[in-house]
Amino acid sequence: MRHRGQFARSERFARSRLAKLVHEQPFLCGSLVPLRRVCGKEGCKCNQGELHPGLCVALRVGEKRKMIYVPQALEATARRWVSTYQKAWRLMEEISYASLERFLKGKEKVREAREAKAAERGRHR
Ligand SMILES: [Zn+2]
After folding, report:
1. What is the DSSP string of 15-75?
2. pLDDT at residue 6, as a whole number
3. The pTM is what?
4. How many A from CA of 37 to the centre of ligand 1?
């Protein structure tokens, strides 16, 4: 493994925040979908069209996309877990941008080396 010193300060910060998040917090790779629902109780106002607010988590389980209903008692938990995922995702993107810059510099070096070699061959012709 290469030394961590290879990373710029901002990237190191993003990496350690991501590691801490993933290490310590549960998360759900999904998004929250507010909905209006019918509770099913007879004579409830929702039967007249005054629907109850509710919440679902939309996520993928294997190949399938699922909508999982969130009971009120677990709303705060679901919001926190999805929010942790979003934070982790943003940090991943930040690290990816930094990696992309490094990759593009690597490409530039490859191109320069190729051009230098071509120039070298040209001189010996
Ligand atoms: Zn109802």
Report:
1. HHHHHHHHHH----SEEEEEEEE----TT-GGGGT-PEEEEEEEEEETTEEEEEEE-GGGH
2. 77
3. 0.77
4. 8
